[in-house]
Amino acid sequence: MSRSSRRSAPSHRSAARRPLWRPLVGVVAVGAATAVCAAVVGGSANAVVGGQDSTDRYPFMVSIPLAVEKPDGSTLTAVCGGTLIDPEWVVTAGHCALDGKTAHPTGTVRVGSDRRSSGGTVRTIVEKVRHPRYDGGGDKRAFDDIALLRLDRPVTRQAPIRIADHAPRIGAATRILGFGTTAEAGGPEDWKFAERLQQLDTRRAPADRCLDINTAGELCTTSRVPGAMACNGDSGGPQIQRIGGRWQLVGATSGDGDHEVNGNCGGGPGIWTSVPAYKQWITETLAARR
Question: C-alpha dihedral over 263, 219, 150, 21, to 10 degrees?
Fold first, then answer.
């Protein structure tokens, strides 16, 4: 059982439904006409806003194509991020591993490429394991936003990343990665996802910088570049920290940290699921399926 089972009181003004950086739209209101797309809410701004093209090799980076079914029956394509933590397993956000007719994985992942739709290693998803306490179906914002994707066969050309033993200390330098949206847009048909992997240097921030955060299982994160942060389509992707000269995984992109104050992705902090807080659950889940 992870440490995140202890719910702390919100460390900032509470938000009833914190928007997630889900893969598609910037719509916050939930209504009959937008019920399908409202499950994928987020801010309206650039991908890893203010970031840059990737400068290092990230063999553990995963892109997860998604299909989003609209109320009129048409389908849009979207993306989530993920991280290879084992030759057969990817960790991502819980809201990137849903079933049904909303946003759901199309069935494959691409591992180790700095291009969203080419290169790397392609594998098929054969199992999705969401954290047992994750509940993304209601109007309230969901905690425990983490899931595991099992692949049909091991990835041999790219090396998994190690999960850090502990969350970063406050103020520690980190980096986020993603293929999210690249331009502000008013609706889902206008979203454009990055083809080239984006990176942004960040820091762990005090919890009181973020709205409605679970301090035991989530990381409040700020950018080291003014006006920059993750956005739609970056969900599930890694937050990494250089430890002992190597990158280690500390977070999975979850949602906007101050949407009630500033609806733009780059307008404030973001919230990441603390992967080290779920390390025991991950270890037990993988061991049970060997």
Answer: 0
